[in-house]
Structures are given as structure tokens and as C-alpha cells.
Amino acid sequence: MTTPTQPAILHHTDSLPFGHSFATLPPAFFTRLMPTPLPSPYLVAASASAAKMIGLDPEEFSTANFVESFSGNRLPAGAMPIAAVYSGHQFGIWAGQLGDGRALLLGDVPAHGAGQFGSMELQLKGAGPTPYSRMGDGRAVLRSSIREFLCSEAMAGLGIPTSGVLCVTGSDLRVIRETPETAAVVTRMAPTFLRFGSFEHWFYSGQPEALKTLADYVIDRFYPDLRDAKNPYHALLAEVTRRTAHLMAQWQAVGFMHGVMNTDNMSILGLTIDYGPFGFMDAFDPGHICNHTDHHGRYAYDRQPDVAYWNCAKLARTLAPLIGGEEETRSALDLFGPAFSAKADELLHAKLGLQTSAPDDVALFDAMFALMRANRVDFTLFFRRLGELQIENPTADDPVRDLVIDRAAFDAWAARYRARLRREGSADGPRRLAMDAVNPQYVLRNYLAQVAIEKAQQKDFSEIERLLTILEKPFDPHPDSDHYARLPPDWGTRVAVSCSS
Predict the structure, then answer these.
(1) pLDDT of 235-250, one tens digit each?
(2) Which of 100, 108, 264, 397 does the annotation list as catalytic?
(3) N or C: which end of the chain has fewer CB within 10 A?
(4) Does 264 participate in catalysis according to the annotation?
């Protein structure tokens, strides 16, 4: 997790200044319990930038105390583990009570570079069963834990709002998923892990006072400026709707697919949370489904904005009694479409190096995506290589042109693009620098994560470290790492991911 500033003082594990804001809520909001110890834990991976964000000395990574503390075998001084209750809609169906079935919130610590929020909650994922486990074993597996660690860092590197991961610890403990696997614990970080489903829980259980308590807590702790609004609850819904719309535009702009956009996986702060069967687009297919258990394609790439709006509508329903009127509630929800469109348009212009807007831009964009779809063009490489195009030198097109089977179709589109660039007086050099700053050279393709996972299963964690290095700075060239920015091998396009973790 990249952070722009570093704290002056670095703490040891047992000197982290834990608070516990969430525990100030009434007891019905959570259950206090201890983690289940992880047998013979070992460190799999850790993020120095995440550690420094919370003032933790990365030198701690090499200590047994660090590994034991963030495996659930002992508690850091001041930590007070709790599991939160929430509910949610899963795959569009009301699922009722859910909650932290394998996650324990240790508390919150001051954080540097955390934006407006100023603190980070630390949560152990995989630390054993809780009252909300619903017959689950409360464990996480090494495979999905590595994926979450790497993707959290990748999204932060891309500048997309996200939860983070401090570390992953592993164990030889066997757990059963689709096949037998080994267990792991992920220490996740976010200003809060509250989600849309946290509000749904109190609404659908008919507890309006608890709903108001939660809304007031969120406003006072995370959106204090909204307290002075004419209707703070309307302002809260409007802000969450806007943040969610912007997040969707950012996902779409890098070809990211979450895979399980249930309301219990939607952050009240507009963060990317709960990484499961995610994926980054390889060959462009708007209908691509990254989760092989999503049999109806509810969470396909091109449906993500609509599903996010649907989820915001579910949140709006829960907040409507506090807002006080259907029309006012609707006015906040109606911000989603314009906010998404404006952000998506801004990002797409930047990806194509366009500094101005023109009436025919939508047609140019649509033709580009049609070309990419028809030729199954690699999403990341297309935009990165497009920056090499020169207005008066078509021979420079080869890197991007070679991605397209129908070369004549590319040439026809490129001619339109060149004409558009000429109209705004674009210069090749500055435009390429600007495009390279927004079009990543590296993303966490599923096959890259799979290679790291298979090595880690043999206790070789070197590939995780190498990937972390490039994913933290995905727009920069990395010497000797060009192979991470190539088209995936044939087997890499067939890596399947699911909700099983």
C-alpha cells in the first residue's frame, strides 16, 4: 500500500497505539471473542509501505512476535478482537444475517497517508469461527490470501480506493474447500470495514434506533462535514452514492472485475473490499465473467456499474426512514448516473491522451471498444501501447497494431484518432508521458498470481516479493520485468477463480 508520507516514529508490534472506535457502538453490533490459534505459523508476505502507514517498523516482520500476533496466536497490546454483525443481498437475493464469519477486528490505529480518515482498522481474516460463521470453519486459505494481498497492493498502486493488507501468515493446517488446502491469516487494513449490509441488517430486522445509531456513527467518524448539512442522512447517501459511482468508473477504466458485488461486499467509504474471485481483463470482452460460480453473469464486467447502482438503491431503501421522504431519497440516489458518466468520461479521455472534449468523442470511443471486442484485444496492452502512436508516423503503430487481427480495421480507427489528436494540437512526446501515467504497464493478471501461489505452496515466497515490487508502481518501467507485461500464455487465459476461499 503506497503512502505519500511516513510517520516520524515507528512502533513495535506491542506498542501500536490501538483504539477501538467500533467497540463504542452498542453490544448488539458485535461479539467479543478470541482468535483461534494458527498452528506453527510462518510469514508469507508483508507490505513495508502498509506497515509504515500505521507507524509499524518493518523490521518487526522478522520477529516471532509479529508472526504470532498477526496469526491470532497472541494479541498485540491494546487489541480487543470483535466480530461484527451485518446482513446483505447475495447475487440479488436477500440472504439475511451474515457477519464476520472468519474476520476479527483488532481495533484501529492512527495512520499516515490515509486521506481524510486518519486511522486504519486492523482485521484478522481467517482467525477461526465466529457466531456468524454459518457452519464455516472460520479459516482462509493460502491461495486466496495471496491473491488478496497482491490485489490490494495492485489497486493501491493504480490509485484506486481500496482496503490494504499488512501481512499474510501461513500454516500447514489443512482445510477443505473445493480441494484440501493449507490455511492462512490475512491482516487487512481499512479506515472501516462497514458495508451496505451493515445498514441493511438493522433495517430488515426492524430496529430503527440501531439504524440511526449506525448512521450517526458513520457521519460523525468518517463524514463529519456532513453533520452540518440540512439533512445529514440525505448527504450521507449522496456521498456514498457518488463515491461508489466513481469507484465503478475506476474499475472499468483498468478492466478490473470484482466478481462478487453483493451488498455485504460494498464499502460505505467507496473502497474496494473483500477480494475474492476478482480478475483483470485480458482479451477484451464486455460480458466477461471472472467468477466461475457466477452462473448467470450477474457480476460480469459490463454489468458492474448497473449492479453498483442496484446496491446503492438497496442502501437508499435502508436510509429512507432517516432521510424522511421518497423524493429526497431518490434525489441522492439519482446522483449515481451523472457521477459515473462524468468520471468514466474523464478517465477515458485521459487514457487516450485527449485534453479536450469534442461532440464526436463518444463515437470514437465506441468504435475503439467495438474494434477491441471484435479482435479480442488485450485490454491493458492496448492502452499502454496506444501511447506510442505518433500523429505523423504510422510506422510507429506496430506495437499496438500487432494486437489487432484485423489490421485494416485498426488503421481506419487510428486515422480517426489521429484526426482527433490533430484538431486539439496534440504533441506526441507530452501525450505519451500523460498516457503512460494513467495506463498501467503491469496489472495482476490471474496467471501471474497463480504462479506466485504455486511457488508459495512449496514455501517459496520470492515470486510474491517480485510481483509486489512492480504492482506498487505499475506505471513505471521495471528493469528485467518486461515478461510481466506480456500477453498471457494460453494456459493463463484459462485460470478459473471462484467464491471458494
Answers:
(1) 999 999 999 999 999 9
(2) 264
(3) C
(4) yes
